[in-house]
Amino acid sequence: MEAARASLVESLKRQGIIRSRRVEEAMLRVPRELFVWPGTEDRAYDDVPLPLGGTGQTISAPHMVAIMLEELGVREGDSVLEVGSGSGYNAALLAELAGREGSVVSVERLPELVEFARRNLARAGYADRVSVVLGDGSIGYPPRLARPLYDRIVVTASAPRIPHYLQAQLREGGVLLIPIGPPGYQVLTRVRRVGGSFHREELMGCVFVPLVGEDGYPAGGDGGIQGPSERERDPQDDARGDHGGRAHAEGALHNRGLGRQGRRGPQRRDEGPHKGRRKAALRA
Ligand code: SAM
Predict the structure, then answer these.
(1) Per-residue pLDDT tens digits of the chain, which is 284 residues long
(2) What number does the ligand 1 atom closest to the CA of 91 have?
(3) Residue closest by Cα to atom 27 of ligand 1
(4) What's the gap in Å between 99 CA and the centre of ligand 1?
(5) Residue 86 Cα to ligand 1 middle (Å)
(6) Is ligand 1 within 6 A of the CB of residue 113?
(7) 47 with 174: CB under 8 angstroms?
(8) What distance in Å separates the CA atoms of residue 273 and residue 197, rounded to the nearest whole number?
């Protein structure tokens, strides 16, 4: 397994996806085979997302994980929030990057995956470095607290807009990374809090499972969290123009176009290759 891990990391480096020594070392240290669903261990180092049992969720493809870690830029000592624990794999990598002086909280909405992520993190030796909590991460953690708490926030599910409380929980100089867009096609978006304002960059196309919750998408009849009504949304959010709803996110795709990397770079998706789909998604 270690040889397979080293070979995957080498390949991600060759492709220019892993660019920093820190991300390389973290990916070499965390054993992905301890985080995949039982029975899929032999595919742990294939560069593909893998199903997490019958939950309908996935452990993201290694290239997508590496891209997000590079773009997030976690530093030693950072306080990090992850939304979407899934298997716990990305949370373990975040813990490696934040180091012993840092902290990682990971929020997951499905109880079965909270248990799975906790168990995997314990087996891999990260139980004391990551707190996995059950809840709706679309409203931050602690929920609905509009106070700057985190240096880095990463959302590993796709949202219709930038969730209000996630932005509010960013510290000065902090970075929020989140796929924004409709199901089937999103733009990996980075928000930086600088001098009290929020700067937004669109990085590249990607495809993630939906963020289901109050400031995400409504649950698709799976008994989960219900979506917000218009009344529950803070009208100031729309005034700021940073989360004006689904039409705004789709408008960003059509009107503003993608950033430099989005135009030039390959499309990365969470659920496997889908050539040509980005163009179709842009037209949709
Ligand atoms: N980071 C994970 C890993 O390393 O395995 C992969 C995450 S998977 C692509 C997305 C996860 O987000 C799923 O486990 C899903 O249940 C979770 N999720 C969706 N909406 C959520 C919400 N509002 N709050 C917390 N978790 C959510």
Answers:
(1) 899 999 999 999 999 999 999 999 999 999 999 999 999 999 999 999 999 999 999 999 999 999 999 999 999 999 999 999 999 999 999 999 999 999 999 999 999 999 999 999 999 999 999 999 999 999 999 999 999 999 999 999 999 999 999 999 999 999 999 999 999 999 999 999 999 899 999 999 999 999 999 999 999 744 333 333 222 223 233 323 332 222 222 212 222 334 333 333 334 444 333 333 333 222 11
(2) 4
(3) 84
(4) 23
(5) 5
(6) yes
(7) no
(8) 36
Whole-number Å distance, alpha carbon 195 to ligand 1 midpoint, is 30
Q: Tell me, in angstroms, the distance from the centre of ligand 1 to residue 58's CA.
A: 8
**Residue 199, beta-bridge partner list:** 192
The protein residue whose alpha carbon is closest to atom 18 in ligand 1 is 84
Among residues 158, 152, 201, the alpha carbon closest in space to that of 178 is found at 158
Q: Do the beta carbons of residue 108 and residue 54 sit within 8 Å?
A: no
Hey, is 166 helix, strand or coil?
A: helix
CB 254 within 8 Å of CB 282: yes
Give alpha helix (H) positions in 30-81.
Answer: 62-72
69-283 in CATH: which number? 3.40.50.150
Please give the helix or strand (H or E) that residue 94 lies within, else none. Answer: helix 89-98
Catalytic residues: 60
Q: Global pTM?
A: 0.82
The pLDDT tens digits for 40-62 are 999 999 999 999 999 999 999 99
The answer to whether the CB of 214 is under 6 A from ligand 1 is: no
